[in-house]
Amino acid sequence: MFSLLFIATATVLLTTRPSTTHQHSRRFRSGGNAYMHRTFVALNSDPLKTRLDLIYRQANDHITLVKAYAAYARKLKLDISRQLKMFDDLAKNFSDITSKPRYKSTLFETDGNLDEDVLRQFEKEVKDRVKFARLLIAESKENYDNQLKIQKLKDTIFAVRELLGKAKKNGAFASSIAAKSIPKSLHCLAMRLVEERISHPEKYKEDLPKSEFEDPDLYHYAIFSDNVIAVSVVVRSVVKNAEEPWKHVFHVVTDRMNLAAMKVWFKMRPVEGGAHVEVRALEDYKFMNSAYVPVLRQIESAKQRFYLEHKMENATKDGSNMKFRYLEHMSMLNHLRFYLPEMYPKLHKILFLDDDVVVQKDLTGLWKIDLSGKVNGAVETCFGSFHRFSQYLNFSHPLIRERFNPKACAWAYGMNIFDLDAWRRKKCTETYHNWQNLNVDRALWKSGTLPPGLITFYSLTKSLDKSWHVLGLGYNPSISMDVINNAAVIHYNGNMKPWLDIAMNQYKNLWTKYVDNDMEFLQTCNFGV
């Protein structure tokens, strides 16, 4: 029965075969019926014709694909005329292969067996064009595949964000190093001033304290810094813009290391207009000891932990001592602002200025502002959700959460008018001590003087008009010059200090115009101003 079925099937196939054996080789016949027809013919003919049929199929598929991409490109009206031409030429090349006389006569119009060498050459040409077509399609695919374009764009955005994040971190780190480092010119200036003191001790004998230093009827300023040139610019800018400079008194406090340099500067370059300058060292204030000052106590505790942890590594080397000495001085110069009533017991009001500010107008109007019984007069910095208490204090801690409003507006240090009488009545230094002791593990705030200042003067700060104090010249390049020119005090807060090479050029001249360029040591030290 199986033999009969096989004979019957073979008979049907033979009787339905076309009269001409080359019909299966017509140029790129398409459709399922044609393919089935060629397949049946191949089973009963030269084996090379099966191979030829497969080559046809591959070529025909790529012609269809190339034409589809070309049509889609025309529909999208993409600016890829070169690729369109290549697609069209490629489709034409596929079609022209069978028109070659050699292939036409030996492969498509013969009733006999196919020439294997010719077929191999034909196959090579078809495969070369198929390879080129695939490369062209792969290169152009992203222009037509929206999902591929979207994914590639996402990948690019992610990669750029990663690079941007790394660049920001590296930039911030480099900027921080530049800001905290002492420029060579500034170090040279301090050394020259000390050398001058040593060479001519008779010129720099200690003067007796002036009565003006304690006169509450004069305008008093507190400036705490170890930067000689920065302090000189602050003082000079105040005096240059003061209507009555002889009524202004500057209390400059520095560390012991820079005391001599600071004194020599103001001896060699007396302040114009009869203004008065008092220069003292941090160590001159005997109440500043670890028994009274929490920050000093915390620094000593940190030093002890450091020595214990690094005992086996010889932690008492000079490098370690210098590290902690630097931290101690810097920290205490910053925290000295919380002890103004003790430092100046006979004064009623005092204006605190950072060393990175420039004064552009007469500031005596600040003493006339009614603080309404509050302690601190300052410019608020909040806008929208930015610079609120929640950004500076840890509101996950119950002590902070229960006592303060996270949406309360923060204010700025750098130019603050303090009512010392109200300070004494409100016992603000005691408040500061209490909170500093609670923050020994830095659970309430991380570091700095602004967070404890916000706490100490919470509900005791009067908001001043923003034109009194404009901030951001040390990091924000987009501040309006109209706003800057209208400001009484401009503040270079941020890493780009005006005495550094990284200062922003559009703001630097506002600071350099108050530098005393006639000072001989500035020329000697190549101070780049």
Question: Can you tag this structure with a few keywords?
Answer:
3-stranded mixed sheet; glycosyltransferase; Spore Coat Polysaccharide Biosynthesis Protein SpsA, Chain A; 7-stranded mixed sheet; 529 residues; golgi apparatus; transferase; alpha/beta; elongated; Nucleotide-diphossugar_trans; 20 helices; polygalacturonate 4-alpha-galacturonosyltransferase activity
Name the poorly predicted regions: 15-36, 315-330
Mean pLDDT: 82
Going by helix content, strand content and strand pairing, the class is alpha/beta
The percent range for strand residues is 5-15%
Number of strands: 10
**Sequence of secondary-structure elements:** HHHHHHHHEHEHEHHHEEEHEHHHEEHEHH
Q: Considering DSSP H and I runs of 4 or more, what fraction of the residues is helical?
A: 40-55%
Q: Which CATH class of the domain at 193-313 and 320-525?
A: Alpha Beta
Order of strands in the sheet with most strands? 3-2-1-4-7-6-8
The CATH architecture of the domain at 193-313 and 320-525: Alpha-Beta Complex
Number of helices: 20
CATH topological fold name of the domain at 193-313 and 320-525 = Spore Coat Polysaccharide Biosynthesis Protein SpsA, Chain A
The largest sheet is: 7 strands, mixed
Radius of gyration: 43 Å
CATH level-four homologous superfamily name of the domain at 193-313 and 320-525 = Spore Coat Polysaccharide Biosynthesis Protein SpsA, Chain A
